[in-house]
Every structure is written in structure tokens, then in C-alpha cells.
Amino acid sequence: MKTMKQEYFVVVLAHSLRGRLRRIHIPHQAVYAILTLALLGGISVFGFVASYARMAWKVANYNHLRKDADAMRVRYQNLQKEVSQTNQQLASLELYANEVSVLFGLKQKLQGPSDIAMQGKLVPSYAESVQDYDFLRNANTLSLLTSSSRRIHPLSGTPNLWPIDGRLLSGFGQRNDPFGDEGEFHKGVDLGAPIGTPVHVTADGVVRFAGQMSGFGLVVMVEHGGLETLYAHLSKMYVHPGQEIRRGELVGAVGTTGRVTAPHLHYEVHDNGRPVNPYQYLAKSNVFHQVAKDFPF
């Protein structure tokens, strides 16, 4: 039988010193196998390089997005600060508006349907602007007259008025803590009334404190010479520290701020810094009744 000779490549190697020749027979299949492996290796290397480049691009894109997110976070924090400052300014303006309303006995209310603001922008006319100017001028004159009358009539520092029209819930002295079984000393009296009931100062004086107090919520403290009164758990405050007020003027409204179980006013009287029983003053006092002011505006 005749056998088929395998095709092959012949590689001739020559020795540089001895001059001897050496032939190496390399089959075609081996050459093809080497070329195939080289091609596969090149494809693998190319795939690795491409994968690495894609990963590097993703990392760069992620870093860029992270920088943008950090910048947006900083902008958001700055906007939060601006909103907080704006809210504080609005709260101050609302407080001053309430003070002006209480000072001059004014109550402004927008008449009309609840969605009146959606029906167009309200722009004051010339006549309304002149009317507002006359009002501010009269208000300034009234303020000067009020200040003058206060210089003529000295302050009365005896708290001889009930701060609200309400009933006595809890008295002065030792009692059980409403939030626990332990006893506590109650430094004032609790007067029950609905939320929003007007709270009146019980004597002429100067506001020493108006703000938040731990356990008492919104608190107003008024000095009356040697005496001092405290009004706690308010829902609103209509005065500010340093303000001089007269007996019967509004200091706030009944609320549920602080540690409470129901809406009421916690009222204290201090004599040279020492709490005394307010009932000794309330027993001889009258409930305040608002007198309508006959003002031309």
C-alpha cells in the first residue's frame, strides 16, 4: 500500500562556525495551529484592552457624576439656609404685625371666597395708597399720644386681673405629676380654656422674656417692679422682650405647647424671684372684658 506523504515546511538552519546545515521539518498543521493560537491571543488581548478602556471610561464618568452630585448637595444646603433665614424673617414680620394689630386694636380680614387669590393679582389703587398713608400717619399720632399718657400715669405693678376667661384646673402647691406617679411642687395655677383664647397681662409692666422654655413651650414673662408674672403653654405670642405693656393688653393665646395633657394656661406670680400662690391675687381680681375702641379707622 502506498502511504500519503504528509506535507510540511522545511526550515534550514546553518551553523555559523562549523558550516553544517540542519533541516527541520514543520508540518502544515503545526503552522496553522500556531497561527490560529496567535490570532486567538490577539483577539483576547484586544478584548481585554477594550474592556479595560470601557471600565476606565465608566470610572471617569462616575467621578464626574459624583462631583456634580456634591456640587448640587452644596447648593441644596445653601438654599436650605436661605429658606430658613427667610422663614425667620417672615416669622419676625408676622410677630411685628400682630404687635401693631394689638397696639392699635386692629383686626384685618380678607373678605370673599377662599380662592380669591387665584382670580388675579391684587394691586392697590392710588386712592387706596393715599388711604394707607393717612392710616399710618394717624397710627403714628396715636402711638405718640399713648406714650405720653404712659409717662403721665405711672405703671401699676399689682397683678389684679384674671389672665383669661377660664376655670381653675390645678392649684398652687404639692400635687401628683400628670406624666408620672411621683409628686411635684406646682409653682402656679392652671386655667382651662380652648386653644386660641386671648391671654391678657394682669398688670402694667415690661416684657422680660418671650420665647421657648423647656417643658413650658411658648412662654411670656413680664416684670412689674418687684413682682413678675409668667404665662406658659401659649400657641401664639404677641409681645417681644423690652416691650412696655399695660394691664389687660394681649400677650398671647392659649395653646398646647410644652408638656400638657389638654389646652390650658399655666400662670405664675413671682415675688422677688420666689413663686407665690397666684390665687391670692386672682381671688380679688376681675375677668378682663375687651372694650370696643371707638376709633375712626
Number of strands: 16
Query: Residue-averaged pLDDT, rounded?
Result: 77
Radius of gyration: 44 Å
Tally of individual helices: 3
Known CATH architecture of the largest domain? Distorted Sandwich
Low-confidence stretches: 105-123, 141-154, 289-297
Query: What is the CATH topology of the largest domain?
Result: Glucose Permease (Domain IIA)
The tally of domains stands at 2
What would you note in describing this structure?
The chain has 297 residues and is an alpha+beta fold. It has two domains: 1-106; 161-287, Distorted Sandwich (Glucose Permease (Domain IIA)). The protein has three helices and 16 strands. It has helices spanning 28-104, 126-152, 279-282; strands at 8-14, 21-27, 161-162, 167-170, 173-176, 183-186, 189-192, 198-200, 205-213, 217-224, 227-237, 244-245, 250-254, 264-271, 274-276, 286-287. Strands 4, 7, 8, 9, 10, 11, 12, 13, 14 and 15 form a ten-stranded antiparallel sheet that branches. The protein has a two-stranded antiparallel sheet with strand order 1-2. The chain is rod-shaped, with a radius of gyration of 44 Å. The N and C termini lie far apart (135 Å). The model is unreliable at 105-123, 141-154 and 289-297 (pLDDT under 50).
Would you kindly provide a brief summary of this structure?
With 297 residues, the chain is α+β, with helices and mostly antiparallel strands.
Attribute tags:
single chain, 297 residues, alpha+beta, Glucose Permease (Domain IIA), 2 domains, ten-stranded antiparallel sheet, two-stranded antiparallel sheet, 3 helices, 36% helix, disordered C terminus
